[in-house]
Amino acid sequence: MELKNVIDIALTAGEILLANGAETYRIEDTVVKICEAYGFTGECLSMSNGLLLSVEQSGVDKVTSMKKVNKKHVDLYRIELINSFSRQICEKSLSYEEAKKILDDIKKAPKFTLSVRIMAACMTGFIYTLFFNGSLLDGISSIIICLITYVILEKISELGFFQFLEFYLSGLLIGGGSILSEMLISSINKHNVITGAIMILLPGVVLTNGIKDILYGDFSSGVAKFFEAMIVIIAVSAGIGTSLIIYLKGM
Question: Which residues cross the membrane (predicted)?
Answer without folding.
Answer: 126-153, 159-180, 192-211, 223-248
